[in-house]
Amino acid sequence: MFSTTVTVRGYECDANGHVNHAVYHQYGEHGRTETLRDLGIEIADMTAAGLGPVILETTVRFLAELRAGDDVDILLDLRFGEGKTFRMDIELRRRDVVAATITGTMGLLDHDTRRLVADPRGRLRALADPEGVQLLDDPDDSVK
């Protein structure tokens, strides 16, 4: 499982003093981007290859408040199956409390055809650095 940490900034909070709902999606996006970087893939590399990541579905479950100054661990599980889509599921944790879960279905968009590529794992593997390729080839289909 991949992880990174952010600190809640005051302007991310609403009138109730907790993180605004839309910011949870931004934390998820940060986790997705950092996961790609951990694989050795920059967004510019994907763009140069005529590809872009797309979110097809995302659901957030709010379980506990996040407030200004909280350190939030973003834990992301990347899973591939058969077909054009893959999963990027996220837990947002404040210390040992799960504050939210974000489930997401993703794809890779071919910029020329405006369609999803048939083998997103293979296309990411082609862009990843050697260590990233090893993570993408994990036998249980999950980045650890």
Automatic annotation (TrEMBL):
Pfam families named among the record's database cross-references: 4HBT_2 (PF13279)
Keywords: Hydrolase
Record-linked InterPro entries: 4-hydroxybenzoyl-CoA_TE (IPR050563), HotDog_dom_sf (IPR029069)
Enzyme class, UniProt record, top EC level: hydrolase
Record carries keyword Cytoplasm: no
CDD domains: 4HBT
EC number: 3.1.2.-
GO function term, MF aspect, one: hydrolase activity
Name of this protein: Thioesterase family protein
